[in-house]
Amino acid sequence: MQTRNLGNSDLAITPIGFGAWAIGGGDWAFGWGPQHDADSIAAIHEALECGINWIDTAAVYGLGHSEEVVAKALAGMSAERRPYVFTKCARVWDGNRQIGKCLKAESIRRECEASLQRLKVEVIDLYQVHWPEPPEDIEEGWQALQKLKQEGKVRWCGVSNFSVAQMEQVTPDGPLTSLQPPYSMLRRDIEAETLSYCQRNNIGVIVYSPMQSGLLTGAWTRERHAALPADDWRREKNKHFQEPLFTRNLRLVEVLRGIGGKHGKSPGEVSIAWTLRQPPVTAAIVGARKPGQLRQLIGAATWRLSAEELNEIEQFLAENPIS
Ligand SMILES: NC(=O)c1ccc[n+]([C@@H]2O[C@H](COP(=O)([O-])OP(=O)(O)OC[C@H]3O[C@@H](n4cnc5c(N)ncnc54)[C@H](OP(=O)(O)O)[C@@H]3O)[C@@H](O)[C@H]2O)c1
Question: Which residue, among 121, 127, 117, has the nearest Cα to 150 in the 3D structure?
Fold first, then answer.
């Protein structure tokens, strides 16, 4: 699979990376319901067999659990087969599993040490500030990441969910390798100015939730939504899974199914390929939680939509605006 350099780094990454949020499991504020580690590990192995060469996780996913599962999946793997491991900081939790926002230097250092231990690695390939919160501390947090880089604990530094103004605020204190923003047919904010800013400044862009956390895969029905476990965050915490948008989004999936069907591609592959059509987008982060899922999506890494197909999607989105 072809790779592209991520921003100013020497990380040559595949167009799709493995997203490890869902494998953090249920039992925390943004859990995905029950999850078996054996399935998670098999999903990671399948991703690597498909040629994917990087994993994106975060300390907060499953309150450390996702990073531990990633470590188990990579245990004993030869250096040639080992993917890059990207993780994130700035979300912390207490003994009651309550999540807090912290960008204080000492906290970031503690978080980094804990992630290195959970991941069982000596260096983190890309360390990202998960959220620019609290906003008054983003410079302190960014300086802390740069220090960790100088000390060799992290190789490259990135941010997630930052605006252009926030990226401009931190870059005087050290180079920014990448931005991780949301991007899908349902969340297009970065098209306004962020993508061109990143392109002009050689900042890599790895987009998250390209299938809107599974909603655009074609695997959703009203019955499935009604039967979601109580600890699956998609039950209540995202407007795209709620009416009236849910029905509209299921209609969009039918458009994607029609387009993909002509090429033997799934609606999920159409959704991912749609994000990769943008030259400033270096790659998409795609979540999977059991074997079989990524294999149905990997075609998006190399396949491109035609101008007519892009127009068909555009027309649906224009005629069915998100109010
Ligand atoms: N920086 C941030 O703030 C942030 C925020 C969100 C995500 N992310 C990153 O981006 C990654 C991807 O985002 P995401 O997980 O929200 O969304 P996504 O990639 O759009 O969707 C992933 C979900 O789709 C479902 N799925 C996957 N393959 C499928 C298939 N073949 N058929 C049917 N369903 C399938 C799975 O859930 P089910 O099987 O349960 O439906 C899977 O967990 C995350 O794992 C994380 O690394 C970062």
Answer: 127
> Residue 243 — left, alpha, or beta (φ > 0 → left; ψ -120 to 50 → alpha)?
beta
Count of domains forming the chain: 1
Nearest to 126 by CA among 81, 62, 83: 83
Q: Tens digits of per-residue pLDDT, 181-197?
A: 999 999 999 999 999 99
**What element of type H or E holds 49?**
helix 37-49
Q: Which atom of ligand 1 is nearest to the CA of 297?
A: 31
By alpha-carbon position, which residue is closest to atom 26 of ligand 1?
214
CATH number at residue 290: 3.20.20.100
CA of 119 relative to ligand 1 center, distance in Å: 20
Look at residue 254 and tell me if it is in a domain.
no
Q: Is the pTM of this model over 0.90?
A: yes
Quick: pLDDT tens for 40-66.
Answer: 999 999 999 999 999 999 999 999 999
Tell me the CA–centroid distance for residue 10 and ligand 1, in Å: 26
Calpha distance 236→225 (Å, rounded): 10
How close is the Cα of 62 to the center of ligand 1, in Å? 14
Question: By residue range, what is the domain housing residue 161?
Answer: 10-218+268-305
Can you name the residues that pair with 278 across neighbouring β-strands?
none
* Max intra-chain CA distance, the chain: 54
Cis check: omega of the bond before 132, within 30 degrees of 0: no
Locate 139 and state its tokens: 């410079």
Q: Which residues pair with 287 in a beta bridge?
A: 19
pLDDT over 90 at 322, yes or no:
no
Note if 61 is an active site residue.
Answer: yes
- Provide DSSP, 149-187: HHTTSEEEEEEES--HHHHHHHGGGS---EEE-B-BTTB
